[in-house]
Predict the 3D structure of the following.
Amino acid sequence: MSTDLSNVEELAISDYKYGFETDIEMDVVPKGLSEETIRIISAKKNEPEWMLEWRLKAYRHWLTIKHEDQPHWANISYPAVDFQDIIYYAAPKRKIELKSLDEVDPELLKTFEKLGISLQEQKRLTGVAVDAVFDSVSVTTTFKEELSRLGIIFCSMSEAIQEHPELVKKYIGSVVPYTDNFYAALNSAVFTDGSFCYIPKGVRCPMELSTYFRINTSGTGQFERTLLIADEGGYVSYLEGCTAPMRDENQLHAAVVELIAMDDATIKYSTVQNWYPGDKEGKGGIYNFVTKRGACRGNNSKITWTQVETGSAITWKYPSCILQGDNSIGEFYSVAVTNNHQQADTGTKMIHLGKNTKSTIVSKGISAGKSNNSYRGLVKVHKNADNARNFTQCDSLLIGDRCGAHTFPYIEVSNESAKVEHEATTSKIGEDQLFYLRQRGIAQEDAINLIVNGYCKDVFRELPMEFAVEAQKLLSISLEGSVG
Amino acid sequence: MLTVKDLFVRVEDKEILKGINLEVNAGEVHAIMGPNGSGKSTLANVIAGKDGYEVTGGSVTMDGMDLLDMSPEERAREGVFLAFQYPVEIPGVSNATFLKTALNEIRKHKGLEELDAMNFLKFMREKMKVVGIDEKLINRPVNQGFSGGEKKRNEIFQLQMLQPKLAVLDETDSGLDIDALKIVSNGVNLFRSKENAVVVVTHYQRLLDYIIPDFVHVLVDGRIVKSGGKELALELEEKGYDWVINPEPAAATV
Amino acid sequence: MENTRNKEYYISEFKKTEQSMNGEASSAFHQIRKQAIARFDEMGFPTVKNEDWKYTNVKQLFDFDFTGGSAGVVTKKDVDALHIKGLNENIIVLVNGVYSEKLSYIKKQNSGIIIENLNSVLKNNPELVLEHIGKYASIENGFTALNTAFAKEGTVIFIPDNAEVKGHIHILNITGEAGKHILTQPRNLIVTGKNTKVNIIESYHSTGIEENFVNAVSEVVVGENSSVEIYRLQQENSGSFHINRTQAVQARNSVFTHYSVTLGGGLVRNDTNVLLDAENCTGNLYGLYLTEGSQHVDNHTLIDHAKPHCQSNEMYKGVLNDNSRGVFNGKVFVREDAQKTNAYQSNKAILLANTATIDTKPQLEIYADDVKCSHGAAIGQLDDEAVFYLRSRGIGADLAKTVLIRAFANDIFETIENEAFHEHLNNLVFEKLG
Ligand SMILES: Nc1ncnc2c1ncn2[C@@H]1O[C@H](COP(=O)(O)OP(=O)(O)O)[C@@H](O)[C@H]1O
Ligand SMILES: [Mg+2]
């Protein structure tokens, strides 16, 4: 009779739409990691001495971390990364000083157009300011002037080191110190670029800020570093998107993102992560090992992480909030989809330190194919964090019978006035729902998309409009072939 | 239009339907009555193509097409509509999105142009009036938080929207008060035409006061034990199902 | 305190025991003990680096030289006071870890039923023990290894197919001797055949105030169409260490129900694990812990769904006062084959004092797709408004709290079908809170 969900998954994975490679002349530092590599990177970027020193300290610390002390989780397996087999710096050759978009290599602009972000279009139509990071360096930042009139600094990390060293020096590593973990140490040593943003006191950033990341050159690792500061009463909504070409090899992406919100400031950080996930057999794909953390330093500050994770062969990612200020709020909304052989281990940490702090966690995991999808989270209420509140909702949806869904929530409470609630469910995609939609003429695959999108509504609602639409599209692409 | 021939169906090793024969022509309304557990929903679900039923013998065709060989959505696009006994809730999917998708899938299949948002809205508003459905319900997720009556009304609203060839209504009257029953029946009666057909599944006679059937079949323990005109329903109401289950010797020739 | 004590001490104790044995040292059973002590030598005691022991540090154990004690320190009167009304048909008493025939009472049972001390079964019917022991509670940490290495005392309950057990079976453990720190390592084996039913009470008490160490392991086999209920009550003094491991394995259509009630003890760690190893099984794990002072109570549970069409229900509730600390780690594991699994887990705690701590980690690990699993965890405090409401009706603050705590625990009480146990637990809770 009708197709059974269990004997499906026949359809081939849809082509990874962003799997093209761009042919541009690149300036590449040869493979391998040593103090020398770091000195070259720092020199190429014309960095001040303190920056180089900081990198070297991080590198020396990294050397002391034993490889077996690399983060390893019960539900993730992958071959060891050879850190000497990675290119740590690759930049388009023609990028020197860009005064306007016209100076950008047309090939590069075409690449971004293929990605669906025409910088020109963006500039004219949407009013979203874009910083684009191509392999290792930031290519162009649009809207700079408009923003600078408000006192907002939005530029590449390299530029920030040159132009605003005092801010960078003050905040870099203040949320994620290089001693934090293996990949944070590595990133601190070799990071090449990323975005920097500073919202001054009382300023509400009038447009969405956005960065697109792309890994292009073969054998490169991408180690970007993003630093976002919202000073007293500031507000910013920041979007991040990522793609990479299709390759047989595994490429490493080890980014660090630090957010700092002062009194009454709000930061919304949204990610649509669509790195190449590898092919149907699990060959190739990006290792996405990212440290993202926000500090609600000020009273009444708020940080919201929203993420839609559909790509990468392996994802480890725990965007977290340190709720230091009284009445501060941390939120985490996540959709993570895995198909074929993908592995995702993602979640958040909410560390309640201040009084009357609140956190909300909504995580929706969807596993299909032979993939494994885990939620791993920590809610910690410290002794002095009176009246802390947390609500966690953590749901997993299973499509097909060869995938896995796992939930590892840690809850640590040391204050009697805390209220912490955690709810989790795991279930198969509803057969009755599927049949209902099909009975009305909707094809099985579309029916699954509708159901899954409905299931993720609570998270999509948190995304800016354009991103929500893109996220829905990605979701359906990523689930294609999960049933047939 | 619909021909069910000698249909045998099992669920988890249990024989539920034991040789059903049914011929429904365009323009006709057939009522299938029977006690709880006799297999009425099973028959409706098998016609629509629900998983979990094993057809061990017989055939189901519509205008010569072998329905059993088609996926649920293909059947729906060819004009099979099932009003569910228990409409399922689908969180996060708005009624409007769902209906627009369904309607356009069916239109595409018929070679018609897809309706754009404006025209869809216009069409939907018209139909909403027919079944008196509240605008609020349209923007809510499919069936979520609907009362029993609202769910049933929503089914008939979809019937009006999708205009199928064959409508199978499974216990659409259950849970409705008399006013709602009239509205729902009106929706069905407006749908009736020379080109389409309706199969009404119920175990009460009450609905048949409003949707007057041309034929009534009595389903007991997986078999149609008696067929007749609309007066059979009244007779059943009066005498109960025992009357057909343990008939007088003369009537035992079905 | 040197760490040498922590491992070598027990290994040398093992050698001493071995030397004092006669023929027994060559028995098949003793070979199991020898393997176990070798495993213990490899593993030692778990440390907080081990994810499963992250929140429970056992290093205080090494402050004491635990030894055996004598059976004569407890009188019949002491024991009688611990009998539980309505659950006292069969009583097995272990004093300082050693079976006391004098204080025990076992009803005459139907033929084939064994309710006996492990040591005597090892003599009369060693095959029975060999067939089962260590087959279910595999050695995953030093404590299980240690218990296996010293296995001698404990209770064997064997119920053949279709046999009817008369009355409840109460295994009563009393530990303590003036001036000594007693170590007991009871090893229980409960094996039921088809179509049987048994209710077992396992209670732990101390005499005196000395720090003692109970390291217990129970293995439970629930036969086809059978039902086993265990009520474990921990009521030791506040200096005691109690490490418990219970491992149940279920056959088709069986029901296993376990209550873990912790009211006493200083450092308590319970590992309660169920393997649903055939279709249509139901596993129920319930727990209630009320802690105060500097008690540390760690409940680890594992519900392993290995086969389809099974269900599990788990509910743990804790009330923590003073400086006490609670840990709950509940894992529900659904294997690839275990379709149509229905697993429900809930874990709630209230903190009564600012200095109390709770760490909880409910885990779902699911490899089958046609399942319904959920877990919920909630941590909070007594509802101030409710306390006020009761007080405004003239109920004193303390009683108001007691009433509300009892109400909080009510979800657990509602699951208890055995009236005598229901009644007894109710008394215990009021006594503890009173
Ligand atoms: N999914 C199912 N699994 C097991 N038995 C079923 C299932 N669906 C229906 N049945 C059984 O089939 C018989 C007919 O059910 P159904 O078609 O729903 O009857 P009716 O609609 O006439 O009340 C009943 O005995 C019912 O229990
Ligand atoms: Mg029915």
Remarks:
- Residues 95-109 of chain B form the longest helix (15 residues).
- The longest strand of chain B covers residues 14-24.
- Chain B has one domain: 2-253.
